């Protein structure tokens, strides 16, 4: 993991990388237990539904048991990633437009993985 990637990061931002540099169960578990759980609303009265795409790094009995204790329902419907495309257009597309507009105001240089944390 190159520490230069996180220079001037937003407080609370973090990164992790596996030895193989591919997503794996250890990285995903760390994300859920150390970052995600802090950022989601209270789950005491209403369970949280977490929709996963079924990547092999998401499949673990230990992780499922942890999620159940946290009142998180993980669903992994097979062969449904094409159904998420509306999210790309409606939700993430708007986010990308705002991000690009902000980035171009902050710097005239290209946005790269090394200067992304400079954009707030």
Automatic annotation (TrEMBL):
<protein>
    <recommendedName>
        <fullName>DDE-1 domain-containing protein</fullName>
    </recommendedName>
</protein>
<dbReference type="GO" id="GO:0003676">
    <property type="term" value="F:nucleic acid binding"/>
</dbReference>
<dbReference type="InterPro" id="IPR004875">
    <property type="entry name" value="DDE_SF_endonuclease_dom"/>
</dbReference>
<feature type="domain" description="DDE-1">
    <location>
        <begin position="16"/>
        <end position="109"/>
    </location>
</feature>
<dbReference type="Pfam" id="PF03184">
    <property type="entry name" value="DDE_1"/>
</dbReference>
């Amino acid at each position: 993991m190159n520490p230069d990637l996180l220079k001037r990061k937003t407080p609370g931002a973090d990164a992790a990388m596996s030895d193989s540099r591919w997503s794996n169960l250890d990285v995903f578990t760390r994300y859920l237990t150390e970052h995600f759980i802090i950022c989601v609303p209270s789950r005491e009265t209403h369970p949280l539904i977490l929709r996963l795409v079924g990547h092999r790094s998401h499949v673990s009995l230990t992780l499922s048991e942890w999620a159940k204790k946290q009142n998180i329902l993980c669903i992994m419907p097979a062969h449904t990633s094409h159904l998420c495309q509306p999210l790309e257009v409606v939700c993430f597309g708007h986010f990308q437009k705002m991000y690009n507009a902000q980035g171009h105001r902050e710097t005239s240089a290209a946005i790269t993985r090394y200067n992304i944390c400079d954009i707030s």
